[in-house]
Structure formats: C-alpha cells, structure tokens
Design goal:
The chain is of the alpha+beta class and 328 residues long. The protein folds into two domains: 227 residues, P-loop containing nucleotide triphosphate hydrolases (Rossmann fold); 88 residues, OB fold (Dihydrolipoamide Acetyltransferase, E2P) (Beta Barrel). It contains nine helices and 18 strands. Helix 4 packs across helix 5.
C-alpha cells in the first residue's frame, strides 16, 4: 500500500520559538522524498508531525486525503524508522521483524511468513534465526527496515537511518534503500543533512532552513537550478560572479558551480593565476585569482589532464550561470 501526503500551512511553535513556518508540500504516492538541511532547520520536527509524535500548532496533515492532524501515531498508516534501530537483543531476526504484527494480534504462522518475506526482501532470510548481535551495522539496518515494512505502512518515515554507518557502507545502503523502495512502492520520507545521500536516493529533495522550505524538486533541478542562494550553497560549492559588497536579504546575485568554470564557456571571467590545486580522484580542485583590481577568487573543478601549472596565468570562463535570491 502507498499514499500521497499533503502538508498544508503547517506552523510549529515551542513557546515563543517558531520551529516551522507556513510549510506547504505535497508528496505523490510512491515518491522517495528527502528532507534536507542543517541541524536545527526543522526537518526532524516536520517528520515527527507526519508521524503523529507532535501535533502542529496550526495546519493540516493529509495522508491519502484523510486528515491526520490529531490522529495518534499508532492509528496512522505510517511507520517511523530511527537512526537507533532499537532491535530486541533477545529475539531472533524473525521475531524482531514480526513484532509489530504480533502487537496487532496476528497468528504466529502469519507473522513468521510475513517476517520471512521481508527478510528475503532485504537479503537476510538465511539469518532469520540469528540474534541482532551476530550482525554487522548494515545488516541490523536492513532488519530494522524489514520490521518497518512488515506492517505494510502507506508512508515510511526515516530519521537519518544511515547516519551511524561508515562512508563505504552508507553508500552501499543508499543504493539498497532506493532499490527496496522501488520494489515495494511505499512512499518514503527520509531526513538527512548529507547532500550526497539526498541526491543519491531522492525522487524529490526538500531543502529546509530556519523552519522554512528554501527549495523543492528533483535532485537535478535543486542542484543545477536552485531557487535561493542558501539552497545552492547547501547543495555544494558555489562561486559568486557579482556583488563585491556583502549581499543583503532580497538581493539577487549571479553564481556558478566550480565544475562550470574552466578554459572555455559562455561568460569571460578574465585572466587568472592558478594559486593551488588538489587532486580529488575524478577532478582537480583549483583556486584561481583573477588579475583585476578586486582580486576576485574562484574555485574550479578541472577534469583530469586539463591542469595548468601552479603560478600559470589562464583565461577563465563560466557556463550555466544562475541568478539567485539571498534569503538570509
């Protein structure tokens, strides 16, 4: 089962502090949505409102067209998976995965059959009789996912579920998580502060800051055509082509990504000296200083084989320049 989600005019206050301001979002059924932003931006607060752990100060939460704003977590068609997998150490994996079905009164055979189906989905059926301490971190994460999906939620909420994993395992689990979501078709709403993770798994990214939505759309749009300067900066490195003076809220400035600066392009930036460069595997990260009165500095990502010598003067150009609004 799966359902669409609508958040309508959501405000959330904690005393005098406004954690969320006028959130209006719609997620299609079966979408993989990632809420992305720095610590304290409101993304986990929004997830807790979706799960029913917080009641919004104002606004509505609709799941499958039904108003869930005052419905308890246990009565919502949602399941939440936290970073702490909270597996029962004394139970087998089969019993861990079937625990939610046991609480719903299902027979032993029915819940074991469903648990085995979910363990097979995450590639751990052969370990159904093992205990959690016998597994790696990535395997425990998959068991927690199987348990969350076993109750057949319409919407699965994930609060930084990969945050405790090392980089290599996290990347592996990103691929597995997306593959499983595509297979089951459940709507996933996933919270993270990791931009690379968001782009790897999301159908849609929602960039949040200070309780507001800065940008929302497919990963390619949010990265290549961001709506605000904050969203662009949070999604990766950025060069400002204008505004020698500090920009103010409401100003619009021209910006370009480092990979769009090099020896050819649509906009001439002038002659510049290569001050230093570092090798990053697939590109060289280069720092240039333009030979002008302002001594403008740019960061460029040059492909392998196109690196001048440190101290050389080159003509720099930019492509895919975007104009962005300053929102903070």
């Amino acid at each position: 089962m799966t359902a669409d989600v609508s958040l309508q005019s959501i405000d959330q206050y904690f005393g005098d502090f406004q954690a969320l301001e006028n959130i209006n979002l719609h997620f299609d059924a079966g979408e993989f949505v990632v809420l992305l932003g720095p610590s304290g931006c409101g993304k986990s607060t929004l997830l807790f409102i979706l799960g029913g752990f917080l009641a919004p100060t104002s606004g509505q939460v609709l799941i499958g067209g039904e108003d869930m704003s005052r419905v308890a977590p246990k009565d919502r068609p949602t399941t939440t998976m936290f970073q702490d997998y909270a597996l029962f150490p004394h139970m087998s994996l089969r019993d861990n995965v079937g625990f939610g079905l046991r609480m719903r009164g299902q027979s032993r055979k029915a819940r074991h059959d469903r648990a085995d189906e979910m363990l097979d989905l995450v590639g751990l059926l052969d370990k159904a009789n093992h205990k959690p301490h016998e597994l790696s971190g990535g395997q425990r994460q998959r068991v927690a996912l199987a348990r969350a999906l076993a109750v057949d939620p319409e919407v699965l909420l994930l609060d930084e579920p990969l945050g405790a994993l090392d980089l290599k395992l996290r990347r592996q689990m990103q691929e597995e998580l997306k593959a499983i979501q595509r297979k089951v078709g459940t709507t996933f709403v996933h919270v993270t502060h990791d931009q690379e993770e968001a782009m790897a798994i999301a159908d849609r990214i929602v960039v949040m800051n200070h309780g507001k939505v800065e940008d929302a759309g497919p990963p390619e749009d949010v990265y290549l055509r961001p709506k605000t300067l904050f969203a662009a900066n949070f999604m990766g490195d950025l060069n400002r082509l204008s505004a020698a003076q500090p920009a103010r809220v409401g100003d619009y400035i021209e910006c370009v990504r480092p990979e769009n600066i090099g020896p050819a392009g649509e906009v001439a930036l002038g002659d510049a000296i290569l001050e230093n460069a570092a090798f990053f595997g697939t590109y060289h990260r280069c720092h240039f200083q333009v030979l002008d009165e302002v001594k403008t500095s740019y960061v460029a990502h040059l492909p392998i084989g196109e690196l001048p010598q440190v101290g050389d003067t080159v003509s720099l150009f930019a492509s895919n320049v975007v104009t962005l609004e300053v929102t903070e």
